[in-house]
């Protein structure tokens, strides 16, 4: 696919999502797009846990079973003898690295749907280490078992009498194709969606079980079990290896109008011609920016009006020119000069004022003149 076509497709997808799926005020706060690698915010869990991770699962989890191909995470379940078990797969979590209270949590996932597979995108309360499960609370954004065409969204908690309680919903879809699985979670409700269509909701205003389990931080998990109490213990070994694909995981949170939006350059949606590298100010910056190169980010502009856009830039040589535009190239919002700073990691901030329209959209920086690095953009009223 050509860069231009990808650019236009990205624009079309951005508009599509903007109309169907986004409430005003959702701002992207964390993402892993699996652009060639897995974010260091994920921790891998290995082994078979206690009692097969509590479910009598048959697999041994290994880091090696999570890879990145074609801009997507691939979790592969294998028929492989390892550690005394007959299958291997992968399980990863953001515990201790990234946790979230409320927000829109979504992932674009395609499932294998084979007898014995149990893929899941889910969350656990960050206090699980002190209060245990299910008092920690569990929010299952998406689970599916075996060859079923149904996906399930469920919450688990500890009931007042101390027993395990749960409340789930399900819906049918073409699970082997990519779909966006999401929850929208606030102080009142958790709602489950497939491709923007709600299929389940729980009112948590007065708590699910008389405790606070759904009003505190949760971390994210992705895994694919082989066998276990839910899918059962029949595995179609002829269907292995089975692969779960995850194009991206994104977390949005509600932000009040007037809050500055910071876009880390390296957390782009799509790009052409640039590369990320370690930044002297922490994290990463983008470099190898030549004339005609471009980078696109998802952003939700809270209201239409005049915004100041700041760019954190560095340039060893003669500087360059940034053009800010809507992804796809039209309209052009404005341009700003990048001065020479005397080093690729000598940073300065340049800015200009532009008119932006409200709503979820894809914004792009294009290099009219290359020869500079970009650490971040900040958009403020
Ligand atoms: Ca991706
Ligand atoms: Ca380049
Ligand atoms: Ca950065």
Structural class by sheet pairing and helices = mainly beta
**Head-to-tail CA distance between termini:** 37 Å
Query: Which CATH architecture of the largest domain?
Result: Sandwich
How many domain units?
Answer: 2
Bound heterogens, unique: calcium ion
How many strands, what sense, and barrel or not for the largest sheet? 10 strands, mixed
Low-confidence stretches: 6-21
- CATH top level label of the largest domain: Mainly Beta
And the CATH topology of the largest domain?
A: Jelly Rolls
Query: Average pLDDT across residues?
Result: 92
In DSSP terms (H or I, runs of 4 or more residues), the helix count works out at 3
Please count the beta strands (DSSP E, at least 2 residues each). 28
Radius of gyration: 22 Å
| Helicity, as a percent range | under 10%
What spatial form do the alpha-carbon principal axes imply? globular
* Proportion in β-strands: over 45%
């Amino acid at each position: 696919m050509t860069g231009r076509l990808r650019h236009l497709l990205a624009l079309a997808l951005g508009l599509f999502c903007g109309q169907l799926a986004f409430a005003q005020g959702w701002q992207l706060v964390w993402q892993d797009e699996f652009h060639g690698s897995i974010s260091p915010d994920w921790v891998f869990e290995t082994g078979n846990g206690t009692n097969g991770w509590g479910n009598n699962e048959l697999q041994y989890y290994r880091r090696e079973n999570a890879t990145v191909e074609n801009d997507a995470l691939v979790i592969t379940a294998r028929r492989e003898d390892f550690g005394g078990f007959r299958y291997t797969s992968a399980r990863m979590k953001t515990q201790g690295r990234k946790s979230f209270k409320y927000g829109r949590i979504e992932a674009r996932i395609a499932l294998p749907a084979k007898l014995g597979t149990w893929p899941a995108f889910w969350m656990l309360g960050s206090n699980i280490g002190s209060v245990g499960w299910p008092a920690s609370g569990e929010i299952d954004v998406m689970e599916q078992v075996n060859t079923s065409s149904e996906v399930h969204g469920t919450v688990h908690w500890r009931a007042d009498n101390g027993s395990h309680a749960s409340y789930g919903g399900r819906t049918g879809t073409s699970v082997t194709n990519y779909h966006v699985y999401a929850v929208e979670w606030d102080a009142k409700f958790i709602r489950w969606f497939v491709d923007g269509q709600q299929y389940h909701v729980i009112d948590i205003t007065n708590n699910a079980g008389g405790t606070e389990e759904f009003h505190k931080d949760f971390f994210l998990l992705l895994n694919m079990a082989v066998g276990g109490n839910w899918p059962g213990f029949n595995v179609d070994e002829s269907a292995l290896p089975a692969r779960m694909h995850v194009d991206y995981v994104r977390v949005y949170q509600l932000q009040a109008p007037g809050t500055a939006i910071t876009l880390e350059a390296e957390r782009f949606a799509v790009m052409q011609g640039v590369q990320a590298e370690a930044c002297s100010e922490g994290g990463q910056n983008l470099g190898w920016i030549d004339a005609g190169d471009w980078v696109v980010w998802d952003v939700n502009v809270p209201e239409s009006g005049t915004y100041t856009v700041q760019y954190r830039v560095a340039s060893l040589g003669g500087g360059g020119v940034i053009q800010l535009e809507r992804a796809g190239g039209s309209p052009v919002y404005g341009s700003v000069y990048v001065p020479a700073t005397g080093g690729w990691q000598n940073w300065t901030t340049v800015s200009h004022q532009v008119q932006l329209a409200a709503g979820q959209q894809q914004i792009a920086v294009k290099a009219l003149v290359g020869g500079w690095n970009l650490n971040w953009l900040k958009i403020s009223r």
